[in-house]
Amino acid sequence: MKNIDTAFRHVRSFTLVVIAACTLISGYALYQSSQSVSRMQSKIYILANGKALEAYAAERKDNIPVEARDHVRTFHHYFFTLSPDDKVIRENVGKALYLADESAKQAYDNLKENGFYAGMISGNISQSIRVDSVSVDIDHYPYRFRCYASQQIVRPISVTTRSLITEGALRNVARSDNNPHGFLIERWQTIENREVKTENRR
């Protein structure tokens, strides 16, 4: 009987230890699972050029400077990247006009009325732009910006480089496929557009 009682106490102690260990392990597993789910909910993966890239979720205010600069770069890329093809010009300018208000449309209309685009097509002239920097003041809304860029105009016999400085303001709007950053450029104007150099093509 004494051996049975001792064995029972040992079995009971062992069982309590096993139960306590299982409880601790289960609690730790639940905690780690919860933390893992939280971490996974804060990031997503996107597919770009066949590569999976990790993206982290964040408040929009954390990304305003980055998104604002990219919005300005994208607008200038579409507005100033031109080929001697009427369809390409209309497509690029059309994409740019989704990102800005009537100030950009007015600039486009003025260039069109002055025969700028017709001259590019008839002269087989192409134009590209390189945005050097964009400064954005996010301390005041709407956000004022200034864009510094270089234009390259390629003619059949020469290549002209021009310095371009523009400025305007950014207003928040709803995001869409045509405007993924959710900004609209307002009061856009050209501050400087001067020739830097012209080189003959060989």
* H-E order: HEEHHHHEEEE
Strand content: 25-35%
Strand segment count: 6
The largest sheet is: 4 strands, antiparallel
| Cα radius of gyration in angstroms | 31 Å
Overall structural class, as computed from helix and strand content, comes to alpha+beta
Flag low-confidence runs: none
Task: List the SSEs and their pairings.
Blueprint: H1 2-41, E1 43-48, E2 51-56, H2 60-80, H3 86-97, H4 102-113, H5 116-122, E3 126-137, E4 143-154, E5 158-172, E6 183-200
Antiparallel strand pairs: 1-2, 3-4, 4-5, 5-6
Word description of this protein:
By secondary structure, the protein is α+β, with helices and mostly antiparallel strands. The protein has five helices and six strands. The protein has helices spanning 2-41, 60-80, 86-97, 102-113, 116-122, and strands spanning 43-48, 51-56, 126-137, 143-154, 158-172, 183-200. The protein has a four-stranded antiparallel beta sheet with strand order 3-4-5-6, with helices on one face. It has a two-stranded antiparallel sheet with strand order 1-2. The N and C termini lie far apart (110 Å).
